[in-house]
Amino acid sequence: MCNNDSRSSISIHSNDGSSSIDYIMATNNEGLEEEEDNLSSTPSNTSNPVASTSSFSVYPCSKCYKDLQQCDLTLPSCSRCASGSFECIYTKTEPKANHVSQVLNTMNKVMDQWQDSIDKMAKDFAQKTRDFGQRVDQSFKKKPLQPFAWKITTTNKGLSVESNVNSFNDLSKLVDQFKKSMHITSRDDDDQQNGIHERAADLLDDERHRMAQSAELDDTSSIHTSSGFSFGVWNSWGHPAHALPDNYPVDISPELTDSLVDLYCRTPCCSAIRLPIVDTTEFLARYHDPDPAKKPSTVLVYAVCAMAARNAFQMHVWSKRPAHDTPKYNMGKALSMAYCLKGREQLAECFDDPTIDNCQAAFLLSYCNHQNGYPGVIYIYEWISFTMAQELGLYDEGRVLDPRESILVWCLYYFNTWYRVLQGVSNMSAESGQFHPNCSLPPPQPKPVLDLMDVDNAEPPKEMIDYYVYTEWYCMIQLQVLRHDVMSRLLSAQAAGKQDTTLSMDLLAMQDRLQEFYNNLSVEWKDPDLESIALDQMAAGTPEPCCGSSYNSFGEQQQEKQHYHVDIHEFARFCILNVHVHYNINKILLYQAFFPSDHVPTSPFSVQCLYICIDAAYAITQTLDIMVKHHDECNIPLLGFLFANMVYIKLLNYNDDQYQEFARRCLEQSINVSKMSKAYLYDFEMTRNLVSVMELDVRNACGGRPLSVVDDEMYSFIVPSPPTLPPFAPHQPFQ
C-alpha cells in the first residue's frame, strides 16, 4: 500500500496491503519498550540513512524462491542475484516459513530505524526551535521608550507646559506621550461619564501591570517547580506494563456485537462523554439498515464494541451481577481487548481507504488501547486517524466542515495536546501545529426547552443529551486551546530564564482570556454550589449515578433494555462539574507562576495569586470528592488532582503550620479519593499507574512519611477546610 500525502511523515510501500500494517501494529509496542530500555545506553546512529519500505520487498525474488535459498529482499536486486548476475524479479508467491521470518526481521529493523530517526529529528527540531526563539527574542526586543521630563504650571494666562527636546522627532514623541497621559473629555455628560470609566479602566490596568511586574515569579516557571514536583508524568504514567497480545481467548458472536452496539448508543455517560465523535442515532440507524451499502464499516463497529465493552458493559452490566458472580472482575477489559484485536485486523485491510467511518474507528481504537493499558500503540492509531482526516480534506484551508467532521478534528487536537502537556515539553512543535484545525468549532445551540415533568418521568430526549455533551466538549476544547498557549509560553520562559521580561504581561493577557471564557458561560454553567451538592447527596445516603438500569446480567439487559435510563439532572450536573475541573486547572497554570515555592509571598499581587490558586485547587478537590463518593460517576477526571497537588506541595514548603496541615490533608485526600473511584477499581485510562505516580510524588513531598489510608466505608464525607488566610485589602486587580 502507499500513502502519498505529502503532509504525512511516513510512507508505507508494500505489495500486500493487508499484511504490512498488521505486522507494524503487532510489533510496534515491543519496539517502543526496547527503545525506552536502551535509550540511555545506546546512542542513535546518525550516519546511517533512514530506512524506507521502498527499499525491500515482502516477497522473495523468483530466483531465491526457486532455489530454496535465503533472499535478503533488497530492491531492485537482491545481493545473491547481483553477485551472480542473475535477473532478479520479485513476484507475489506463496510465502514459506523462512521467507516470512526474513520479512518480519527486515520490517522490524526498518521500524527501529524509523523510530530512532523520528526521535532524533524531534529532539533536533526542538533544540533548534528553542535556539531560534531565543535569538529572535534578543533581536527584536525593544527598549522601552524613555519618558520626557515636563511640568505644568499655572500662570495668569492659563496653563504653561515646560519641557526640553532635541529634535522634531523627539517633539513628536513628546506629543504622543501627552496623548497617552492626558485624558481630555467633552462637556457633554455622556462623554464625560465615558471618559471617567475609560480613565478608571486605564488606571486599574496600569496598576495591575505594575503589580505583576513586582510579583515574585517562580524561578523555574512552574513547569518543574522548585519544590521538585511536576505534572509532566506521561512518560512514567504511560509506560506499558505488558506487550500487546496477538490474540485474546474470547469468542465474538453477532449477538454479542449487536448487544454492545446497542449498549454504546444508550450510554452517553460512558461513550459520548469520553469521545463524542459518533452520532449514536445515525450510527444505530445505519447499523440496522438492511442495505449493506449504508451500514457502518466493520472496523468502526468493532471499535464501538471495544469502547462499550470496556466502560458501559463493565459499569452497567457486569458490575451489577450478584457478589458470587465476581462483579469486580475486569470482564469488560477482556471483551474490549478481543474487539481491539479484531479492529486491528480490519484496519489493516482498509488502511488505504480513508473514510469518516475508518477515521473515527482508528481514533476510537487509539483511545481503547489507552483504556486497556497499551499506550505504546495509541500514537500509531492516532496518526492513522490524523492522516486519513488529512486525505479527506478536513485540514484544507477554506474547507467548511459539518458538525461530525468538526468535532472529530478538534478531538484529535484535544487529546494530542494533552499528551504534550503531560510530557512537560514544548507544544510549539511542527506536529502540534499540524493537529490544530483550520476551522473554528461551532458554538453550541441554545438549550432545548422541555417540560421538566416529562423529563423526570421518561427517557430524556436525545437533543437534551446532545446539548450537554456538545456544550461540555465545546468548553473543554476552548480551555485546551488556552492551556496549549499557556504551556508553550511557560516553557519558552523556562528556556529563556531570567532574560524573559515579558512573561508577566503575556500571562496577564491569558488570564484575561480565561476570564472572558468564564464570562461567556451561561448562568447554568457558572459556579456550581459544591457544598449544597455534597449536603444533598449526604442526606440521600446513597450515591446517585447519572445513569441506571434494573438488570443483573447481560442476557437480562437485552430483554429489559427499556428499563435503562439516563438521569438528565445528574448527567447535566456531571458535565458542568467536569468543565469546572478543567477551568480550575487552567486557573492554576496561569496564576501559580506568580508566587514562590519556598516561602509565603509578600507582594500584594503574589498574595492575591496564591489565594486564587488555593481556591482553584480546593475546588478541584471538592469536586472530585463529590463525583467519586456521592455520584458514583462513570468517568472521573482524576487528572485534576495532579494540578491541585502542585499547589498543595508548594504550601508544604511554607513555614506555617496552618498551610502545611491543610496541604498534607488535601494530598492524602487526593490519593484516598482516587483509590475509591471506579476508575481505579477497573483501571480505566490506566488510573492505577496514574495513582501510583501521584502517590510517589506525595510521599516524597511529605518527607517519606506514610500516608493516612482509610477504609472507604468509614471515610468521612467532609473534605479539609482551607486555612484561614490573613487579611488582604489592597487593590483588587481581578474584579
UniProtKB/TrEMBL annotation:
Among PANTHER family, the record links this protein to:
TY1 ENHANCER ACTIVATOR (PTHR31313:SF81)
Q: Where does the source fall among the domains of life?
A: Eukaryota
Gene Ontology biological process terms from the UniProt entry: DNA-templated transcription
> What's the chief localization of this chain?
nucleus
Cited PROSITE patterns: ZN2_CY6_FUNGAL_2 (PS50048)
Which named protein is this? Zn(2)-C6 fungal-type domain-containing protein
Quick one: which gene encodes this?
PARPA_00827.1 scaffold 1159
According to its UniProt record, what is one Pfam family this protein matches?
A: Zn_clus
Work out whether the entry's keyword set contains Nucleus.
Answer: yes
Entry GO terms, CC: nucleus
Keywords noted in UniProt: DNA-binding, Metal-binding, Nucleus, Transcription, Transcription regulation, Zinc
Cellular localisation: Nucleus
Query: In Gene Ontology terms, what is one molecular function of this protein?
Result: zinc ion binding
What the entry lists under InterPro entries is as follows: Transcr_Regulatory_Elem (IPR051615), XnlR_reg_dom (IPR007219), Zn2-C6_fun-type_DNA-bd_sf (IPR036864), Zn2Cys6_DnaBD (IPR001138)
Residue span, Zn(2)-C6 fungal-type domain? 60-90
